[in-house]
Amino acid sequence: MTKPVRKAVVPVAGLGTRFLPATKALPKEMLTVVDRPVVQYCVDEAFEAGIEHIIFVTGRGKGLIEDHFDYQFELDATLRQRGKVPVADQLDAQTPGAGQISFTRQQRPLGLGHAVWCARDIVGDEPFAVLLPDMVMDGKPGCLKQMIDAYDEVGGNIIAVQETLPELTHKYGIVETGAEKGKAFEITGMVEKPAQGTAPSNLYINGRYILQPKIMDLLSSQSTGAGGEIQLTDSMLAMMETDPFYGVSFDGRTYDCGSKFGFLEANIMLALKNDDVRDEVSELIKSLDL
Ligand code: G1P
Asked: Is the pLDDT of residue 1 over 90?
């Protein structure tokens, strides 16, 4: 029997310099894609997958994220008083319940591995998920749910992967794959941000992980890697030597909202799936004489 994955770590300490001046005062995770802040997509995805507790690893200037996921008494009362009960109910359903959300700070920008390690005491001795909110996923079911389905079959550690273009492999963690096992396949190697032309494949780690708690011990002594940062990929590589590691090919689309183009692409593509604006956006696109 595999232990269930109940907790998810969401690192939100990054500065968002690529979106200046928008992110001077606003956390980059609070930029809006259609009608929700970027960070809400991964929280919705986590709850859909059965996650019970979200652990945000934050930094200075990220207080708005805490407010966003709080129950807003005045707003709720006003909406209900004005007869907007469905809107109030929807907000309610999207808000984590009492005790289902924790915040800790990554005091120094030492890398993704360090950010995850900052959550070790709250995670405790159980498997957990990591969701990188910059990566907005569009899939049915969501990416983490697809991974949990595979985890229920094979257990161990699981990362979601997708194909990217050879000229983009240097931006991501890239994996090497082995034999298939149920809904997953073995991961036999990985490298963080390989130099152009040296990637072992075109399969990149798209920002969703299911990890066993042992990763925290490895992270505690992890030396710096690519970009001079403590990399999660390097500790996962060490874990692979002794523990089962699988990949799941995400059936859906990933938008890298850490880049301007990915963010705009997410807005356009998800607007085309949104009942309120689909028709107008579609008309607008058709009318463009480019
Ligand atoms: C991180 C991971 C990388 C992964 C990427 C997905 O990199 O280290 O392996 O492919 O997220 O977004 P970052 O984007 O933090 O540089």
From this structure: no
